[in-house]
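In the previous chapter we treated chains in isolation. Here, by contrast, the input contains two separate entities that must be folded as one system, with a combined length of 402 residues.
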Amino acid sequence: MNTTRILFLAGISLLLSACEQNTQVAETPSIQYPDWSGQWSRIGSLNWQPEGYAEVGPPPLSPEYQARREEYQALRNQGVLVGDPPAACLPPGMPRLMTMSFPFEMVITEQTSYILADWDSAVRRIFTDGRDWPDYMLPEFNGYSIGQWHDENEDGVYEMLSVETRAIKGPRSFDSTAVVLHDNNETVVLEEFRRIDETTLENTITTIDDALSGPWTVQRRYSHESFSEDVLWVEYVCAENNRHINLGDEWYFLNKEEGTLDPTREGQSRLVPED
Amino acid sequence: MKIPSLLLSCLAAFFIFVQAASAHHSTAIYDMENPVELQGRVVELQFTNPHVFIILAVENESGEEVIWSLEGSNTSLMLRRGWRPDTLKAGDEIRINFRPLHSGAPGGNFREVKNIDGTSFDPASTR
């Protein structure tokens, strides 16, 4: 290698090194992620409206889906378990998962925030790596979530995680009161998580769905329990001993002890397996 | 010091009641307005999800034994209330208050387990 070439490569190396140093100087100081570790438990009712519908009014349903709710409620009065997919062990999906029947945990990393729920042992991945929506998203009950952290008061620590969730699979309901989401499953869920005080995480959730007369915003809150050996995490596998069986339009109660499908409404026949 | 402890106990009891009252899915198949109470012999405690079940052998008016499948809460809440998989054993005699199936089939959703004398059953008493 001749002297001219060596000097040329050394110059390039020095130039790259200088550029790298300048880049480092120009980088924004890193913002800290919040500590939301521990166990979070639901505050309020399992109605999608946590204060309860009796207190704040009925769900804002479109006329078509209000009629469907009334139809389902009439069937329920007879003992038919319609309009509540988790009753037959389907996952709650989004947004209902966030009612959090059971406690959950949030694990925050730079690229992804995870919600680990005891209910159905469900996992939500919220991608915070700056990605765009993929060309194709296979619909799933918890959907596909992209999030963004916000340092709202510019103190160097993120306070709010905003999340948008799409590609959500059905059937789903908001809660167990026959408030179902639209059959077209074009739901979009927008969330804003904030720890509003030491013991409370707040999630402002806006659901956009064709079963509704307009966007529906609720605030759900969760209370905090710090990690300790006394904090209980309990597995939940719905298929383990589910007794609620849906066959066509009929619902049955599985009587494992007798080996039969027992009726749930008056006038329904008991199904007994043939020998 | 007793007053705060009592207050905490009341709050805890209220919290448990609220949790118990809000099932994670509809209870439409049960007649919630007309609870009944039966006395019988425990066949099995199934400490499972989505619901804990007490399988109870009850003698009917004709003297025949009928097996009832009685659904409770889930393992998460029952564990927090002090229940364990061996809290009830086969052969234990209990009374149980539950909401029956609308259809009249031998199944229901139980609210409260009692001792034979009608007092409230304390799961901690079995450990």
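The radius of gyration of chain A is 25 Å. Residues 39-235 of chain A form one domain. Compare these points with the single-chain example from earlier in the chapter.
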